[in-house]
Structures are given as structure tokens and as C-alpha cells.
Write a structure and sequence with these properties.
Helices cover 51% and strands 21% of the residues. It is an alpha+beta fold. It has a single domain, classed as Tetratricopeptide repeat domain (Serine Threonine Protein Phosphatase 5, Tetratricopeptide repeat). The strands form three sheets. A six-stranded mixed sheet has the order 6-7-1-10-11-13. A hairpin with a 5-residue loop joins strand 8 (379-386) and strand 9 (392-400). Helix 5 packs antiparallel against helix 6, helix 6 (71-90) runs antiparallel to helix 8 and helix 8 (119-136) runs antiparallel to helix 9 (139-160).
């Protein structure tokens, strides 16, 4: 190959490398900004234009639509994301094609592979689908998604030999749904799993005390009362309001790296690092009739789960980066021998530009999932949801029947509050949307 041909080939390689330099955060900056100011349609359009991953496109658009209370649209978007990872979830072992695809990431950088989400992100995808189904009243589908979420979580824990502080949202959704259907024994199992994993115990603990009494589990009751207190049970046939909220924004990824110049060329090692965002809202408060209140409790801290999972993967990420960098240094050495200083400079530039950490991440996830349950006397209740600096949503007045459960599904993003009432019989509605849900009165 003559010098002119070599220069053209190197220029082409550099252009390919430069094309991959824009990070996921850069590409989706406008989309996230639109979400942060509450412009739902613009955010959805921007994510669909900017995402080159079907998984991320569906997840990001779905989360924005979920915040807006557009349940069927959100579900459709999440189903798009699910379709992109169906094969990955269904395989217990790597196939030849999987291995080939994995090896291709050693050639340029980790972003050369189609992004199919980290394991914990796929867990949250099923939990979000379950939340959509709950809002739509498709209760059996809630169980399908929460079971899938739990199975995937167990797979991740087995893979990395670690028990994550996760699963709170899925188990809580499952438990509440079982209670809606009057299956208290099954609800008890889910609350117990939350207690075993030490997630959302501010909710699971009192529920275990209450259900142990209702179910006559006299052997368990002293254990739960010793751990969580002798919580008084609500009056028989009480109505209740359940708040489920995503609060804040999940962390974002930044690149950390080290470059070392050697006699044979540049060695560059890079890896992603998570940076947590500022969270102006700590928790939410539901106010009934201006007096009775509850504060939401954290049932899952996404930032903590993401950090644990990244720690588990860092060694593999760094090892791949080192191996790629060594291969690129060998290319630089060969170019230097064949083309002198021009080859050396081109090789070092290619190594510096092309070795990039994968910064893709489901960025519209909340920082935490929170929930709360307020038991009320049957009758008409005025409801308001307060989010501190993010303001309040006057949900309206609702007539609640004995044993009835209604939901408030909410999301905060910076100083934006989205809140939606699901169920109950609206007497008057202020600035929140309402969707009916079928729930038996004898829960």
C-alpha cells in the first residue's frame, strides 16, 4: 500500500472513530431538557429521533409517557423496548452469534454494539410495564411482568454473586394487586420477600403485621411486631389510597480514563462512572381532607442499584478496554514502521479518538421509586399531593366505597410534578387525570 492510499485509509478510520465520539448524553440533551421542563410530546419526539437503540428509544419514550399518564402509549413504547431484548432474555447461555457480537466490541469500542440495557435496566422495564397494566386495570398482566422482573433480578444476582437492594417496586405492585383480588395469602408472600430483601420495609412491615393478624398467622405475628411494632390494623372495610411515585432523575454516566504514551504508541484505558444528580424533592405527601396525611417511603433506590451493578462490571469493562488498546498500539507500531512519523501520529490519533466508554443509560428513570398507603373511612375525600419545591397537585374529591382501593401514580422531574388518579369515583377533579380501575370491594 502506498503512502497516499494509507493516508486515505487512516482518514476513513478516523472519521469512523470521530462519528462515535458524541456521547449518548450529548445526543439526547434536547430530549431530556424537554422532559425536565414538562414538554412531554417534544421529549418523546426527540428521544425517538436521537436514540439509535430500540431498547433505549422505547424505555425513554415510555417513561416520559408514563409520567404523563398516557398508559397505553407508554405500554406500547415499553413493548418496543421489550421486543429488542426478547432474544437476550430467553437465552440462558451464550450462543455462537452472541459471542461473535460480543467480540465485535473489542474492535473499536463498546458503543459499536447495539445497546440492550444492563440487567437491572431490563428488570425495571418489566416493572414499568406492570405499572402500566395496573393503571389500565389489567391485573393478571401485572403478575406476568412482576414475575419476569423478579426472575431477571435473580439471574443478575446469580451472575454477579451479589444480592442487590432491588425488587421493591415489583414485589409491592404484585402485593397490592393480590390484595385488590382478595388473595391476601399471596400478598403476604410478596411483602415477606420485601422484608427478606430489606427493601421498602416502611410499607412491607406494617402490611405484614396487618396481614398476619387477618390470616391468623399467630406464629409469625410476634416476629413482625417485634421488628416493626404493634401496628394497629385499620378498621374493617376501610378504603385506602395507594401512592406510587418515581422521584427525581437517575444518575448519568461520565467517562473516566487514563492515557499512557509508550515507545510503541498510545495506550488508553477508559470506563464509565456514574454521577448522581441533585434531587430537589425528597419525598411526596398525600393530604386527605386537609388533615390526614402520609409521606411516601423509598421502596427502591435506583442510583444505589446502578452503582452496585456498575461496580460488578468494571473489571470486565476495563479488561476489554486494555485489550483493545493493546491491539490498537500494535497497529500504531506497524504504521510507524511502514510510514514513519505520519503513521505514528495517525495511529495515536486513532487510539485516542476511538477508545470511548459506553455512556448509554436509561436516563429518564427516577432516582428512587417511592410508595405509601393511607387508610380512610369510606366516603368522600378531598385529595392533594404535595411535592415540596415541585409544587402540589389538587387531585379532586373522590367517593370511596368500603374496601375500595384507589391509586395515585406520580412522578417528579426536577421541579415538575405529574400526578394521576386511578380508580375511585370522582366527585370533582382539579388538575389531575382520572382513570377507572376495577377492584372488588371485599379485598
Amino acid at each position: 500500500m502506498n503512502t497516499s492510499t494509507t493516508i486515505r485509509a487512516l482518514a476513513a478510520l478516523l472519521l469512523v472513530a470521530l462519528a462515535s465520539c458524541a456521547s449518548y448524553g450529548d445526543k439526547t440533551e434536547d430530549a431530556l431538557a424537554a422532559f425536565r421542563r414538562g414538554d412531554v410530546d417534544r421529549a418523546v419526539d426527540e428521544y425517538r429521533d436521537a436514540c439509535d437503540s430500540a431498547f433505549l428509544e422505547g424505555c425513554e419514550a415510555g417513561t416520559v409517557l408514563l409520567a404523563a399518564g398516557r398508559w397505553s402509549e407508554a405500554r406500547s413504547a415499553f413493548e418496543l423496548a421489550q421486543a429488542a431484548v426478547d432474544d437476550l432474555e430467553s437465552k440462558a447461555l451464550l450462543s455462537v452469534s452472541d459471542l461473535s457480537a460480543s467480540l465485535s466490541s473489542w474492535v473499536l469500542n463498546d458503543t459499536s454494539l447495539a445497546y440492550q440495557g444492563e440487567g437491572f435496566e431490563r428488570v425495571y422495564l418489566h416493572a414499568c410495564l406492570a405499572l402500566c397494566y395496573l393503571a389500565e386495570g389489567s391485573l393478571q398482566d401485572v403478575f406476568v411482568e412482576t414475575r419476569l422482573a423478579n426472575r431477571l433480578l435473580e439471574t443478575e444476582e446469580e451472575l454477579y454473586e451479589r444480592e442487590y437492594a432491588a425488587g421493591g417496586l415489583g414485589h409491592f405492585l404484585s402485593a397490592i394487586t393480590y390484595e385488590l383480588l382478595g388473595q391476601k395469602d399471596e400478598a403476604y408472600i410478596d411483602y415477606r420477600r420485601m422484608a427478606d430483601k430489606d427493601v421498602g420495609t416502611q410499607l412491607a412491615g406494617p402490611a405484614l403485621v396487618r396481614l398476619a393478624r387477618d390470616l391468623g398467622r399467630d406464629d409469625d405475628l410476634p416476629l413482625w411486631e417485634a421488628r416493626y411494632g404493634a401496628v394497629s390494623s385499620p378498621p374493617r372495610n376501610s378504603a385506602s389510597v395507594v401512592v406510587i411515585a418515581g422521584v427525581g432523575l437517575a444518575p448519568f454516566k461520565e467517562e473516566e480514563g487514563l492515557g499512557v504514551m509508550t515507545p510503541d504508541g498510545l495506550l488508553t484505558v477508559v470506563a464509565p462512572a456514574l454521577e448522581r444528580r441533585g434531587q430537589p424533592v425528597g419525598n411526596l405527601r398525600l393530604v386527605a381532607n386537609g388533615t390526614a396525611t402520609l409521606r411516601t417511603a423509598r421502596i427502591e433506590e435506583i442510583h444505589a442499584v446502578a452503582e452496585q451493578n456498575l461496580d460488578d462490571r468494571l473489571l470486565k469493562i476495563a479488561s476489554k478496554s486494555i485489550a483493545r488498546s493493546v491491539a490498537k498500539r500494535e497497529l500504531t507500531k506497524a504504521l510507524s514502521e511502514d510510514h514513519g512519523i505520519l503513521g505514528r501520529v495517525a495511529g495515536d490519533l486513532f487510539s485516542a479518538i476511538s477508545e470511548r466508554a459506553d455512556l448509554r443509560f436509561w436516563q429518564t428513570l427516577p432516582d428512587s421509586w417511592q410508595a405509601g398507603r393511607l387508610f380512610l373511612e369510606p366516603g368522600t375525600h378531598d385529595l392533594r399531593l404535595d411535592a415540596g419545591p415541585a409544587g402540589s397537585a389538587n387531585l379532586g374529591s373522590f367517593d370511596l366505597q368500603p374496601g375500595e382501593t384507589m391509586f395515585v401514580i406520580a412522578r417528579t422531574v426536577d421541579l415538575q410534578l405529574f400526578a394521576h388518579a386511578v380508580g375511585g369515583s370522582p366527585v370533582a377533579i382539579a388538575d389531575a387525570t382520572w382513570v377507572p380501575i376495577e377492584a372488588p370491594a371485599d379485598q
